Amino acid sequence: xxxxxxxxxxxxxxxxxxxxxxxxxxxxxxxxxxxxxxxxxxxxxxxxxxxxxxxxxxxxxxxxxxxxxxxxxxxxxxxxxxxxxxxxxxxxxxxxxxxxxxxxxxxxxxxxxxxxxxxxxxxxxxxxxxxxxxxxxxxxxxxxxxxxxxxxxxxxxxxxxxxxxxxxxxxxxxxxxxxxxxxxxxxxxxxxxxxxxxxxxxxxxxxxxxxxxxxxxxxxxxxxxxxxxxxxxxxxxxxxxxxxxxxxxxxxxxxxxxxxxxxxxxxxxxxxxxxxxxxxxxxxxxxxxxxxxxxxxxxxxxxxxxxxxxxxxxxxxxxxxxxxxxxxxxxxxxxxxxxxxxxxxxxxxxxxxxxxxxxxxxxxxxxxxxxxxxxxxxxxxxxxxxxxxxxxxxxxxxxxxx
Length: 402
Ligand SMILES: *Cc1c(COP(=O)(O)O)cnc(C)c1O
Prior knowledge:
Layout: E1 6-11, E2 17-18, E3 33-37, H1 39-45, H2 48-51, E4 83-85, H3 87-93, E5 98-102, H4 112-125, E6 130-134, H5 138-150, E7 153-159, H6 164-172, E8 176-180, H7 184-197, E9 201-203, H8 212-226, E10 234-238, H9 243-258, E11 267-273, H10 278-284, H11 311-320, E12 324-328, H12 330-344, H13 350-364, E13 374-378
Parallel strand pairs: 5-13, 6-7, 6-9, 7-8, 10-11, 10-13, 11-12
Antiparallel strand pairs: 1-2, 1-3, 4-5
Helix pairs in contact: 4-5, 4-8, 5-6, 8-9, 9-11, 12-13
């Protein structure tokens, strides 16, 4: 029995085939590569019922993950996050069937751990000595922690104003960390040059290696499994590089081909900030690719990506699924974040809050129906963003009576 049924890699633009068992970057067309599996073999090897007895982490889907030898699996227990009903908040916004997939509970406090777990495991399997990446913070934190766990090196370059906690996580993991006075695209150029000069380093920037997306697609598998192999009507996702959305779409197509779910797919919503909305702009203009946005700014740092390498894949997934793309302001993000904590006792990250703001808006506009089952991805823990909530609480004298 094979642990993985990985078959080959495929250029996401041309469909050209590539060998999956050597370290690969972008395709010859300069596009991300997608992992392909022998799904007939997977269908014969495992059924949804078999999965039920496996450990509650993302490796339960190992047949459709790229790691061939279980000895190379690098895990900190990531995956199988709760899919929480939100009855109070849902009633407030008129979507009683609203649920939150809470990725704040994974190691390193963001869903970047999924991509890092699978990406680092496969890099280690293919003999990579160190991984190198630009990051807005959470990816660097996750990849450097998983690299430490795997016993390989990590090089991280991040904007100077990325959340400081993520910088500290990289330092704690023993990564080589650098700050740049610029945005993630500036960090990317520095990493690219460094990797070219260093032996055994792999560039693992968003979509520049094929396996981060495989880790993130497990969110799609989990949502279906947690709903009894049904899919919701709508899934909202905060899109920066868009890996999670591309991954969830890929998971849906794979599960449909496997016969694990029916024909109907969820409508996927890409949520961005009005301070950085390249994918929303492209969606509204009917374009297949986004245009670089200058001078972007948002407190939702994870979605401050002025031009994503996989933008065309995000737009394709949104359109194919009859979804949409929505931008919300930082004010709306902060308001929703506070409301959710007060209504449900859950402190989401700003990126997750953006999706709640978008869900409320789409309900108001009628794009989401009252009867829809809706899943919002909260991609990280609010604890990583303490400054989103005020702390100006008065100090009492010791003899105070309340
Ligand atoms: C990175 C990140 C995102 C965006 O993820 P992409 O895969 O780049 O679209 C959203 N939320 C948080 C908390 C992140 O760290």
